[in-house]
Amino acid sequence: MDVNAAVAAAAAIAGVLTGVIAMLAFRWSEREQKRPTRTSLHTDPVLPPGVDTVLSVLRSSAVVLDEADAVVKASSAAYALGLVRGGKLAVEPMLQMARDTRRDGEIRQVELDLPRRGTGRGEALAVSARVAPLGSRLVLLLVEDLTEARRIEAVRRDFVANVSHELKTPVGALSLLSEAVMGASEEPEAVERFAGRMQIEATRLTNLVQELIDLSRVQNDDPLEDAEPVRIDELVAEAIDRCRHQAGAKQITMAAGGTADLSIWGNRGQLAAALGNLVENAVNYSPARTRVGIAARRVTAPGGDLIEIAVTDQGIGISDKDKERIFERFYRVDPARSRATGGTGLGLAIVKHVAASHSGEVTVWSSEGQGSTFTLRLPEAGAARDRATDDQTPGLDEDDETGQTDGTTTVSSPYEPFSAPEVLP
């Protein structure tokens, strides 16, 4: 009996000890789970209050790195530029800057040229990177895309250089001719000949300055501020009147067709200048006793009907290597012929900008020795007016930059013939 009692007492004591040990182990496990570990501190860092909100509204690409160079926070723009890949900063120079800033706390800035992702043409992406400490453990990297700014600066430099060169030619000619007139003051025939040349150079200089003014105006002005319905037949008649003298001198027949009951929405002056430039080029680059045709038609498009105006000539044509450059400022397919006809190399650039500012485009088909067809495609009056009204509707995000077209030139197939055009005197 005493033996059984001793066994029972020993079992009870063992059970109590086991329960106490289990309870202590459970509480120790809970305490260890709640305690922050070095691993959790490393993988789940906390941004200072308000930083996340600020980064979300910055235009710059933003990346926050921790003490192990892991990405804590990155904006969508940073991923789009290819700065962050697989949770790591993928640009070694920026990563080294971040490490140096973490070490000494100094703010650093540098400009870099990075290869574009997904392009095999070796194009560089120009960026400006700025690194600054963010608290005691984090580093903030801000990256600005400078590619477009550099492109615009290069265009501006080229434009200034081209303008200087183009102005230098007639100004230098006028200077030399004036000296020749002074030296031939006693020779009436020579004076008359030199004066005639001076008048030609002065006209060329005047045309160049005027086209520079026109190009600046179409680039800076909003054509829809003074927009109105513009009848196609009126634009065609004005363009033909503008070139009637040159066409008559070369016995070139000008014909128009399909322009009745068609209209577009835009700035009358700019549209007249664009179409006039196309017709003038067609006349200037066509041989004598040939034909220049102007035709228009309505075409159906998903965003609304378009009006196509085609100007066709039987001139010298344009080679394949020149087609992609003819809309550049001051570019001439045949510089000698262009100077002989008084061309400045700005006419097609003006056409391109007018088309782009009116939500349209200009295309070209050409074959050497067979002539060329330039086609303006512009929204019809009703569709364009409705589109302009929608763009001004309240509630639209005005900061949503959709990237207005630059009027990039495309090459299309030959323009299909319309109804028989009317031959104009």
TrEMBL record:
Signal peptide: none
A Pfam family reported for this protein in Swiss-Prot or TrEMBL: HATPase_c
Keyword annotations: ATP-binding, Kinase, Nucleotide-binding, Phosphoprotein, Transferase, Two-component regulatory system
Region (Disordered): 377-425
InterPro entries tied to this protein: BphY/WalK/GraS-like, HATPase_C_sf, HATPase_dom, His_kinase_dom, HisK_dim/P_dom, HisK_dim/P_sf, Sig_transdc_His_kin-like_C
Top-level EC class as recorded in UniProt: transferase
EC number: 2.7.13.3
Subcellular location per the Swiss-Prot or TrEMBL entry: Cell membrane
Protein name per Swiss-Prot or TrEMBL: Sensor-like histidine kinase SenX3
Taxon lineage: Bacteria, Bacillati, Actinomycetota, Actinomycetes, Kitasatosporales
